[in-house]
Automatic annotation (TrEMBL):
Region listing for Disordered, in residue ranges: 1-31
Listed InterPro entries: Nmi/IFP35_dom, Nmi/IFP35_N, Nucleotide-bd_a/b_plait_sf
Segments crossing the lipid bilayer: none
One protein family per Pfam: IFP_35_N
Encoding gene per record: NMI
Subcellular location: Cytoplasm; Nucleus; Secreted
Any one of the GO CC terms: nucleus
UniProt record, GO biological process: innate immune response; regulation of innate immune response
Main location: cytoplasm
Record-annotated Nmi/IFP domain positions: 100-173
Source organism per UniProt: Phasianus colchicus (Common pheasant)
Domain of life where this protein originates: Eukaryota
Protein name per Swiss-Prot or TrEMBL: N-myc and STAT interactor
Entry's family note: Belongs to the NMI family.
Length: 379
């Protein structure tokens, strides 16, 4: 290219220079700015929406935080309470465990004691073949003699007894039993229910309830006293055969006034014997001597002699029910007066006709502890 040649106009070369119109440029910029503005508005709206969402999320998060803090506090309190209860429970369990161990030791001692008693009972049973058992106290009354019915008049003696158990009743503290002469009075007092009793300046609402009698037993005891047999016990132990011992007993009891010995049943283990004579009526004279001499091997032993008896029961009856004349008083207040004075005040109250009462037969009041009282069938 020749740079030294002169410059020529663009028009000379066939080009036309067009200057831009300022108004067209301004319109384009405005459109561009408008578009840019719309974009920023959209971005602003989006940012505002995001801000609102973030604020809402923050509010929810704050609420959740407060809730979690509250729950955490409650959990801490519950944990502390649980720890306290656990410590208390552990102490209680340790105390209960000590008590249980003590009770267990006592039960073991009782078991050992019962085993010893059982061994003693078994030993006693092996000795006489009988088991002894305590029964309620009984009332025994002789009623009549029975006919011998074909036996010799002086052979056997037959007696009949009426036996009734005395019924025990536990009278607790601040209670009383009152027996009246008239059944109607007892029933009337029971129907009235509560009675206000004056106890030396103070009053007590005493409740009257029927007195329920426990289970009792009544029967006839038929006893036959043999006129030919006697029981002999405390026979000495001798190193001789049983047959020899029977012979010595027969020789000892054989006398002209007693007659011959018909039979001897000897039990070496229990050291007893039943001797039967041939002649009836001789046992009465022998039984009068409770300690009968027994001579053997140059020594004198004393035997225990008693009549031979047999018995059986008839007309066995069980009875129970509500007493028609005795009432039970409950709810008697404790006072400073002695037991006998309070008992007298109660009896006076129920003797007055104005209180629905009447004549009394007996009264028993308990101010402390408990006592056992016994009743018969007609209580």
């Amino acid at each position: 290219m020749d740079l030294s040649s002169p410059l020529h106009s663009l028009e000379d070369n066939g080009f036309h220079v067009i200057n831009p119109d300022p108004s067209d440029t301004s319109k384009d910029e405005m459109e561009s700015l408008k578009q840019e503005l719309e974009k920023w508005k959209e971005r602003l709206e989006q940012a505002e929406k995001t801000k609102a969402d973030l604020q809402l999320s923050k509010l929810i998060a704050d609420k959740e935080y407060v809730k979690i803090q509250h729950e955490l506090t409650e959990l801490k309190d519950a944990q502390e309470e649980l720890n306290k209860e656990s410590a208390m429970s552990e102490a209680i369990y340790e105390t209960e465990l000590r008590v249980l161990n003590q009770e267990n030791a006592e039960l073991k001692r009782e078991i050992e004691k019962l085993k010893e008693e059982l061994a003693e009972c078994c030993s006693a049973l092996s000795q006489d073949g009988k088991i002894k058992k305590k029964v309620a106290e009984m009332k025994v009354e002789f009623t009549h003699m029975e006919d011998t019915e074909g036996d010799f008049p002086d052979t056997n003696t037959r007696c009949v007894f009426s036996v009734t158990t005395r019924i025990p009743f536990k009278l607790n503290q601040n209670q009383a039993l009152l027996t009246l002469e008239d059944e109607e009075v007892a029933q009337r007092l029971t129907k009235m229910g509560k009675h206000t009793v004056n106890l030396d300046g103070t009053t007590a609402d005493v409740k009257v309830v029927p007195f329920t009698v426990g289970m009792g037993v009544k029967f006839e005891l038929h006893v036959t006293i043999s006129g030919k047999k006697i029981n002999v016990s405390e026979i000495p132990e001798l190193p001789i055969p049983d047959e020899w011992m029977r012979d010595k007993l027969e020789l000892n009891f054989y006398k002209s006034e007693h007659g011959e010995v018909e039979n001897i049943k000897y039990d070496k283990r229990s050291r007893t014997a039943v001797i039967t004579f041939t002649r009836p009526g001789v046992t009465a004279s022998i039984a009068r001597c409770a300690r009968y001499p027994f001579y053997v091997n140059g020594r004198c032993h004393r035997l225990s002699v008693s009549p031979n008896t047999e018995g059986h029961l008839e007309k066995l009856q069980l009875f129970s029910g509500i007493s028609t004349k005795t009432i039970l008083l409950k709810g008697i207040k404790e006072t400073e007066d002695d037991e006998e004075s309070v008992q007298d005040m109660i009896e006076i109250h129920f003797q007055k006709p104005s209180n629905g009462g009447g004549e009394t037969e007996s009264i028993k009041y308990v101010s402390k502890g408990a006592v056992w009282v016994c009743f018969e069938e007609d209580a």
